[in-house]
C-alpha cells in the first residue's frame, strides 16, 4: 500500500493487542497469527501500539520486532498499516518514528502529545515541527486523547499543519464529550481524516468522519465492517440501529464486569474481550501496573456472550 493520505485513511482499522507469556515476554508467533486473522477478515487497515497495544510498557527491541511482523504480513497482503509511535518525550517518539519510517509498508504513524505535564501551545507546535523535520515523508495521525491533557480542535490543527504538513488524520477519542465541537472541527479541517469510537461511528460519519480505530472489531469483525458498509452507502437507519446496539453492548459488558469487580481500562478490556470472544489467541494478561481479567471472568464472559450477544462471538 505504501504511504497513506487523508483520502485513503478511512474505514474500520483493527488494533491488535500484545500477547505476553507467563514471564511477560512478547509472544511473537501468537501476535503474528492475530494480525493475520485481521487481514483474513478484510478489515480496512491495521494499527498498533496505542492504549490497546500497551505502548507504554514496550521495550524498543520489542517495538522493532512488532513493526517487523506487521510490515511483513501487511505488506504481503497489501493491507494498510499504521504504527503507533507514542511516548512521553519528543526524542523517544522520533526514535520510534525513524524505525517505522524505514519500512516502506508503513503507511503512517500515530503519535500522542507527551502527556506527563500539559504542553503550552508553543510546545505543541514545536513537538509536531520536530517530528516533521525528523521524518518528513512519514504521514502523521494525531492520537487526540484527554489523557495527554491537551485536547486539540480544528483551530489547533490548522496551526499544526503549518509546521507539520504531513498530518493527515485525527483519532478523535472520547468524541461523546466533544461531540458538539466535532462538527466545527470537521468543517474547519476538511483536509484531515477524523476517526471516532464505535459507539458514535454512524453519527460522526453523518458529519464527515471517515471511520474508527476499533477494538470491537476484535470480537467478531463482521459486525463493525457491516455497520461501516451501511453508513458508507447511506443506509443510515440500518446503520444507526447497529450503532445503538454496539452502545448497549458496551454498557451491558461494563455492568457484567462491574458485578465481578474487574477493571475496564483500555488494554485490560480490549484484550479481555478479544480473548473471551475467541478472536485473538493468547492470554488476557497485561503488563504491570494494569491487571488483566481472571481466567474465571474470561470463561464466564464467554458463556454470557454466547447467551446474550452471540453476534460478538468470533466465527459466528
Mean pLDDT, as a whole number?
96
Regions with pLDDT < 50 over 5+ consecutive residues? none
Proportion of residues in β-strands: 5-15%
Number of domains: 1
Strand order of the largest sheet: 7-6-5-4-3-2-1-8
Fraction in helix: 40-55%
Structural class assignment = alpha/beta
> What profile does the largest beta sheet have?
8 strands, parallel
Relevant terms:
TIM Barrel; alpha/beta; 8-stranded parallel β-sheet; globular; 11 helices
Could you characterize the architecture of this molecule?
The chain is α/β, with parallel strands linked by helices. It has a single domain, classed as Aldolase class I (TIM Barrel, Alpha-Beta Barrel). Helices cover 46% and strands 11% of the residues. The protein is built from eleven helices and eight strands. Strands 7-6-5-4-3-2-1-8 form an eight-stranded parallel β-sheet. Helix 1 runs parallel beside helix 2 (60-77), helix 8 (221-232) runs antiparallel to helix 9 and helix 10 (266-276) crosses helix 11 (295-308). The chain is globular and about 55 Å long. The relative contact order is 0.13.
Amino acid at each position: 500500500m505504501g504511504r497513506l493520505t487523508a483520502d485513503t485513511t478511512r474505514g474500520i482499522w483493527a488494533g491488535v493487542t500484545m500477547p505476553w507469556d507467563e514471564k511477560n515476554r512478547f509472544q511473537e508467533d501468537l501476535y503474528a497469527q492475530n494480525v493475520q486473522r485481521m487481514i483474513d477478515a478484510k478489515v480496512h487497515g491495521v494499527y498498533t501500539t496505542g492504549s490497546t497495544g500497551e505502548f507504554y510498557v514496550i521495550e524498543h527491541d520489542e517495538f522493532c520486532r512488532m513493526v517487523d511482523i506487521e510490515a511483513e504480513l501487511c505488506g504481503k497482503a497489501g493491507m494498510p498499516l499504521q504504527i503507533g509511535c507514542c511516548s512521553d518525550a519528543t526524542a523517544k517518539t522520533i526514535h520510534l518514528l525513524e524505525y517505522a519510517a524505514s519500512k516502506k509498508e508503513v503507511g503512517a504513524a500515530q503519535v500522542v502529545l507527551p502527556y506527563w505535564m500539559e504542553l503550552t501551545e508553543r510546545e505543541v507546535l514545536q513537538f509536531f515541527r520536530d517530528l516533521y523535520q525528523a521524518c518528513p515523508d512519514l504521514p502523521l495521525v494525531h492520537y487526540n486523547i484527554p489523557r495527554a491533557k491537551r485536547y486539540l480542535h480544528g483551530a489547533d490543527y490548522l496551526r499544526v499543519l503549518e509546521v507539520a504538513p504531513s498530518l493527515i488524520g485525527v483519532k478523535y477519542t472520547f468524541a461523546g464529550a466533544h461531540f458538539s465541537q466535532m462538527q466545527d472541527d470537521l468543517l474547519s479541517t476538511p483536509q484531515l481524516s477524523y476517526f471516532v469510537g464505535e459507539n458514535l461511528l454512524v453519527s460522526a460519519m453523518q458529519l464527515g468522519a471517515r471511520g474508527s480505530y476499533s477494538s470491537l472489531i476484535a470480537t467478531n469483525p463482521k459486525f463493525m465492517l457491516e455497520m461501516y458498509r451501511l453508513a458508507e452507502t447511506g443506509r443510515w437507519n440500518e446503520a444507526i440501529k447497529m450503532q445503538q446496539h454496539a452502545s448497549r453492548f458496551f454498557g451491558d459488558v461494563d455492568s457484567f464486569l462491574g458485578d465481578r469487580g474487574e477493571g475496564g481500562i483500555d488494554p485490560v478490556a480490549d484484550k479481555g474481550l478479544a480473548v473471551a470472544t475467541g478472536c485473538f489467541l493468547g492470554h488476557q494478561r497485561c503488563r504491570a501496573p494494569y491487571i488483566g481479567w481472571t481466567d474465571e471472568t474470561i470463561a464466564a464472559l464467554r458463556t454470557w456472550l454466547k447467551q446474550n450477544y452471540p453476534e460478538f462471538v468470533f466465527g459466528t
